[in-house]
Amino acid sequence: MRDHTVSIDRSVNPTTIEYADNFNVAVPFIDRHITEGRGDKVAIRAAAGAMTYAALARDVNRCGNAFRAMGLAPGDRVLLVVKDCAEFFDAFWGAIKAG
């Protein structure tokens, strides 16, 4: 199975879901849009304006790297106290991307 993919088998009851050994949900939700050529498409619309997948991926990576630089390791927990704004997505997905 390729990295960051999911396999769903509906032929059995109950349905089974199998994740790749190397799986980070930020890849199928954000990064794949870049690799599939949709970086310039709108990912988030907010009162402050629209954010493309390319901008979201850049900011998510920046936030994830900042978390890592602060000493966070995969499996650590993060408490996000953020206003209801587009930057929430940077912090949320950045924490996920960091592991």
Can you give me a brief rundown of this structure?
This protein has helices spanning 26-35, 53-69, 87-98, and strands at residues 6-9, 16-19, 42-46, 49-52. By secondary structure, the chain is of the alpha+beta class. The strands form two sheets. Strands 1-2 form a two-stranded antiparallel ribbon. A two-stranded antiparallel ribbon has the order 3-4.
Describe the structure in your own words.
With 99 residues, the protein is α+β, with helices and mostly antiparallel strands. 39% of the residues lie in helices and 17% in strands. A two-stranded antiparallel sheet has the order 1-2. The protein has a two-stranded antiparallel ribbon with strand order 3-4.
Radius of gyration: 15 Å
In spatial order, strands of the major sheet run 1-2
Could you tell me the strand content as a percent range? 15-25%
Query: Which runs of at least 5 residues are low in confidence (pLDDT < 50)?
Result: none
Number of strands: 4
CATH architecture designation = 3-Layer(aba) Sandwich
Q: Give me the strand/helix succession.
A: EEHEEHH
